[in-house]
Amino acid sequence: MTGQPVSVHTALVYLMIVIAGSNGRMGTSEMQAIGRLVKEWPVFENFNVELLIPLSRDCGTILNTDDGLDTVLGLVQTAIPEELSETAYCLACEVAAADGDVDADERQILDTIRARLGLERLAAAAIERATAARLKRLPS
Predict the structure, then answer these.
(1) How large is the average pLDDT for residues 84-111?
(2) What is the torsion angle, in degrees rounded to the nearest 10, for the CA atoms of residue 111, residue 1, residue 39 and residue 85?
(3) Which of 11, 13, 21, 136 is least buried, going by the fewest C-beta atoms within 10 A?
(4) In 3D, which of 35, 46, 29 has the Cα closest to residue 13?
(5) What is the radius of gyration, based on Cα positions, of the chain?
(6) By CB neighbour count within 10 A (0-12 exposed, 13-18 middle, 19+ buried), where does 52 fall?
(7) Do the beta carbons of residue 100 and residue 140 sit within 8 Å?
(8) What pLDDT, on a 0 to 100 scale, did the predictor assign at position 26?
(9) What pLDDT sits at residue 2?
């Protein structure tokens, strides 16, 4: 399974699962964000939503092997074309920020994802800032 190339949709789902589980647990807000993104974003227009859970399990299986994170990120890096690298990074940022905070583990994985996707730091910073601005809430 791990040596085979994956589709762009599979790679995008894997990317979101990686960031959602980066701190050792997948929270409800991250899982809800993944479901919403898959249903709403144009990049998933022809994606079969019923594949989301099986793909999530497949990703988890790979992540639980030796060098699992490196394997998954290698699959993502190979599958995502350059013209979708910013979109992929944006998806990762959306999931990371879904609970209202990007913690140190998520930040480290985002840095790794940025490097694997070949994004310039300035482009990544712009995406991160736009995500934070979009998800900002009024103070209580």
Answers:
(1) 93
(2) 30
(3) 136
(4) 35
(5) 14
(6) buried
(7) no
(8) 80
(9) 53
8-state DSSP, 2? T
Distance of CA 48 to the CA centre of its chain: 18
Half-sphere exposure of 46 (CA within 13 A, CB side): 2
The alpha carbon of 12 is separated from its chain's Cα centroid by a whole number of angstroms, namely 6
Q: Residue 34 above 90 pLDDT?
A: yes
Cα(41)–Cα(43) distance, rounded to whole angstroms?
5
Is the dihedral angle over the CA atoms 105, 47, 38, 64 positive or is it negative?
A: negative
Q: If you search the block for the tokens 């992540």, which residue do you land on?
A: 63
Whole-number Å distance between alpha carbons of 129 and 22 = 20
pLDDT digits (tens, 9 = 90+) for 42-72: 999 999 999 999 999 999 999 999 999 999 9
